[in-house]
Inverse folding.
């Protein structure tokens, strides 16, 4: 269904379409809400309020942005207000200047020093192939899930939208209100840390 | 290893992997990137692991709203509908 059809169905009070829309976006809405509020419980409330806002606004929605972008804008406004009430502020840098504080994708100790006479900055300890048969094991999956949970909330939201939900960079950028470059910086940090966690687990257990 | 592999160190390459996978590298950098991984088994493995990480992440089940919250929303929908 395209946006116009979904909007028309919602205006016609089609419950099935509403339910489908919720199923499609709830996971992502939760992830984005968690950038602004501390607990999962409050994030759920924010998502609930968002849908109420969508229902109350749909008859007046003018379609100047995509439906998705509009829904996420409603969510962000509600989540920000809730976050402020909780006394929580998202550091400006987390969304607007993610590269202000440099983070290395790989521990610098894994590389030869910059003044090494033959191979400055080359691997001191090369990555070794991962044991294929363990990649799909339940434990590996748990390590992966934990690594994502432990990411800073903005990075967690980006990797969830891009790699769990399979959104495009443009969709992700619009939902979060960040620039293309910042979206990429955040994704890079998130994926690099998750790779590192997997490597730590898979290599140690060999 | 050839001279051009030395131009981009492994430590620099790992910071370009996402740009590379996103197709966001300018042509010249893209060329040195490709040239580097051609001759460097460590970096080739690193890029492979990043792809594996992305594939594994894609298999995760997205978080979801609690059934209670979802039920409450459907109730809210019916309430809205009857207004």
């Amino acid at each position: 269904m395209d946006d116009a059809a979904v909007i028309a169905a919602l205006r016609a009070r089609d419950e099935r379409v509403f339910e489908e829309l919720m199923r499609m976006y709830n996971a992502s809405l939760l992830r984005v809400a968690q950038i602004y509020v501390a607990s999962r419980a409050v994030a759920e409330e924010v998502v609930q309020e968002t849908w109420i806002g969508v229902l109350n606004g749909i008859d007046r929605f003018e379609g100047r942005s995509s439906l998705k972008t509009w829904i996420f804008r409603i969510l962000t406004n509600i989540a920000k207000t809730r976050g402020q009430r909780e006394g929580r502020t998202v550091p400006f840098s987390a969304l607007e200047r993610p590269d202000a504080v440099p983070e290395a994708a790989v521990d610098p100790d894994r590389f030869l020093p910059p003044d090494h006479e033959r191979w400055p900055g080359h691997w001191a300890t090369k990555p070794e192939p991962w044991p294929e048969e363990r990649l799909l094991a339940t434990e590996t999956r748990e390590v992966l899930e934990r690594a994502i949970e432990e990411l800073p909330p903005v990075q967690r939201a980006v990797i969830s939208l891009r790699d769990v939900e399979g959104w495009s960079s443009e969709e992700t950028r619009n939902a979060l209100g960040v620039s293309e470059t910042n979206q990429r910086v955040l994704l890079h940090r998130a994926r690099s840390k998750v790779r590192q966690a997997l490597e730590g687990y898979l290599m140690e257990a060999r | 290893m050839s001279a051009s592999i030395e131009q981009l160190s492994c430590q620099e390459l790992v910071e370009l992997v996402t740009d590379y996978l996103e197709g966001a590298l300018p042509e010249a950098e893209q060329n040195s990137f490709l040239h580097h991984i051609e001759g460097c088994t460590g970096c080739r493995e690193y890029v492979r692991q990043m792809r594996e990480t992305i594939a594994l992440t894609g298999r995760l089940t997205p978080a979801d709203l609690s059934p209670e919250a979802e039920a409450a929303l459907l109730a809210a929908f019916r309430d809205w509908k009857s207004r």
About this structure: The radius of gyration of chain B is 23 Å. Chain B touches chain A at residues 6, 9-12, 14-15, 17-19, 22, 24, 40-43, 45-46, 48-50, 52-54, 56-60, 62-66, 69-70, 72-74, 76-78, 80-81 (CB under 8 Å).
